[in-house]
Every structure is written in structure tokens, then in C-alpha cells.
What does this fold into?
Amino acid sequence: MTSETIARAGHCTDRVEVPLRPACPPHTGAASAAWPEHVKAVIDRVGAAVLLVPVLPLLVLLVVVIRLDSPGPALFRQTRTGRGGRPFTMFKLRTMAVGAEEMLPALSHLDRGSGPMVKLSADPRVTRVGRLLRRLSLDELPQLWNVLRGEMSLVGPRPALPREVAQYDARARRRLDVKPGLTGPWQVSGRATLDWDRSIGLDLAYVDGWSLRGDLAVLVRTVGAVVGGRGAR
It folds into this structure.
């Protein structure tokens, strides 16, 4: 323990050890590094709450349109993998015919994806309204509820399916070090046109160097990518 020695007056040989009290608490690198994550979490939840207010009327309208276009529920629930490998239920507007997952094995010849990702060219499971929703990314709007619940972030790697995560190597599993996002680096860099290696490279670059300023830049670029419909499928 750090201490100083004080000589008593008249008794130079008598010395007493007095513990020094630090002027301020010792610096902890972990606490210093954690504060941006806390700010990000607050921004996520406040941002999701604010956005949900004007989005709700649009969601009601889209629910009606989806139900009129094809039979089945308008809201689609699916298990995805979150931070640290924890599963959660992700919400989307339905863009495919009911039973789309069961149709997938019969459509494997249309798969143009690489790595764990499945990308079907001219996917016949997608409905007419679903194609428009996907092009404008409107099908992702219900995930604001996932952000509000703390399961997702406004910005981060897109949430993967458990079957995709099961094929991850050690490098790819680093995508799970952060919360999945409503939008992310590959959504603003080509979306469905990117192959697996390019997608995972962008996601890992985000994981290694994310910042609040970088998140803001991705959100701004997302608007341009959605309006332009770049890389949508």
C-alpha cells in the first residue's frame, strides 16, 4: 500500500506509517471504454421510441395492404441470433407467401449466395407487395420494437439466422460481439449484391472500429440507399 512516513516533532527516530488516500479513484480502462456503449444504448431506445410514433400509422396501412394482397398474417416472426449468440424473436412485415421456409429446399437450384447466406435469384416466394416493401426496406420497420426492447441496435451487423450461425467459423462469430442492427455497414454498401466475404469483412470492420459518429454516418447513408433502392432484392 502506498504510504508516507511522518517524523514526530522531537522524536526523529519514531516514525509512523500513514496510508495515503488517493486524490481521486483509480482510472479504470473498462469503465472509460464502456461509456460509449451506454450512450449508444440510450440513443437506440430513445430513437426507436421517437421513430415509432410517426411510423405506426404507416404500419397499420401496410398491414391492410399485405392482407389484401395475399392470405396470411401481415406480421412475420422469426428466431434470429443476437449479441453473444443469444436467440430472440425478430419482427418483420411479411413479404413472402405463407410457408416460405418449407419451400426453400425445392428452390436450392436458384441459390446464388455464398458462405452461409442463401440468396435466391427471382425468388418466387416473394409476393407482389413484398417486392415493393423489400425495395424500400419497409418490411424492416417492425424491428424498431426489437430496438426498443434492447435486442437490437439502430446500427450493427444484420441479425443472422441460427442455421447461418451454425456454419460460422471463429472469424465470422465475431459478428456476434455487438448487437445486430436495423441497418448496418453492408446495407449501405451494396446490400444483396455483396458476396459473403465482402459482407463479413464490412461487418467485422464495424465491430472493430465502431463509434457513435460512425453510426450516425451509416444512418444518413441508409436513407440514400433506401431511396435509391441500391442492392435491394
Notes: The chain has a mean pLDDT of 83. The two ends are 64 Å apart (CA to CA). Residues 29-69 form the longest helix (41 residues).
